[in-house]
């Protein structure tokens, strides 16, 4: 009996310490949620372009950049989904939300864009791929800067900050490719 | 990976509070990327000291009718500064302009000016542009260094998007490089220069190295970060923000 009680006490202590070990509380706000939803949407669109560009671009620099973006997006979007799941928020932004209206174009790609890209050949393909990637990344930069100024959750803001740095470097490479 | 608990009450308060966050009007939509416009040269790092335009070269939106590179108004006045050393692309008399478009506004016209003279106008009759937009303009009769002002006149708003492109017709007397050689004042980083907030302490663990942004890791690689050891779960090139403790998809603590 004493043994059982002791075991129960131990279990209780373990449970309590398990829960109480991390009492840190960080609040997120609506901008964090909006940022994550929009960023996932923009990554999804960028992925469509980059997947085709990685395969078919003539210039190897475009293929490299597309592959690099896809790798980074994969990791970034996994973290974004984790946060939304933890906050019990949908992964997809409400399409008609007025909150989203001012921040970047959610649906920058239109029907036929990817088909048009696939149909293009040679330097035409490269020119269109670079323009589409630039358009996507410019919209992303707007969303990232929105989070940097209006977000609340430190880890999400940190991610937005580091993504801004990375994306700006990639925009510079794309602009050099566009000019060349 | 550290888990943080979010109190529902706090969440509700935060969500309710931020419903009233002012939403700035959309202001991003397009610019000329080739030959590089002034805002493209700012964003690419070819020209330094440009201010916020580097993050949004697509945002030079102002009421129609201006002949200024920033479209008038108080934003992005750096674009009007002719004393800045804007690179001028060497071109022939026929120039092809490529636009980057981030939002597809219904369009009335695309206009190209030198000085106050309209050189070419393309009427889209209210159609939406495609994924990209390209115009070829004939500048016969012009020579030497010139600034081309392009205006994208939106059909369903009072606004236009402005892009100034510095060109050198003939190219012979142009002191700036013909190929897009960015001026060396601000080197455009080809790899993102990461800022590591807390440099991990150097350790002497055998068989592992200190995690570093920019390094290509493959599955199974071992690193140390902030005194702890991690094993790579999938191949990737590390960037700032992907430090092992934060990205469970990439690193397992060992």
Largest sheet of chain B: 6 strands, mixed
- Estimate the mean pLDDT confidence of chain A: 84
Radius of gyration of chain B: 25 Å
CATH architecture of chain A: Up-down Bundle
Number of helices of chain B: 2
Shape of chain B: elongated
Number of helices of chain A: 6
Give the chain pair forming the largest contact, with residue counts: A-B, 65 and 66 residues
Mean pLDDT of chain B, rounded to whole units? Answer: 78
Helical fraction of chain A equals over 70%
The fraction of residues in strands of chain B falls at: 25-35%
Query: Class by helix and strand content of chain A?
Result: mainly alpha
Q: In whole angstroms, how far apart are the ends of chain A?
A: 82 Å
Describe the structure.
The complex is a heterodimer of chains A (180) and B (254). Chain A is mostly helical and 180 residues long. Chain A has a single domain, classed as Ferritin, core subunit, four-helix bundle (Ferritin, Up-down Bundle). Chain A has 6 helices and no strands. Chain A has helices at residues 2-20, 30-56, 60-86, 113-119, 122-150, 154-179. Mean pLDDT of chain A is 84; it is low at 12-23 and 96-105. With 254 residues, chain B is mainly beta. In chain B, 7% of the residues lie in helices and 33% in strands. Chain B contains 2 helices and 15 strands. Chain B has helices spanning 8-18, 38-43; strands at residues 30-34, 61-63, 89-91, 94-101, 107-114, 117-127, 132-138, 144-154, 159-169, 209-210, 216-217, 222-225, 228-232, 236-237, 251-253. In chain B, strands 2, 3, 5, 6, 8 and 9 form a 6-stranded mixed beta sheet that branches. The two termini of chain B are 13 Å apart. Mean pLDDT of chain B is 78; it is low at 1-27 and 172-206.
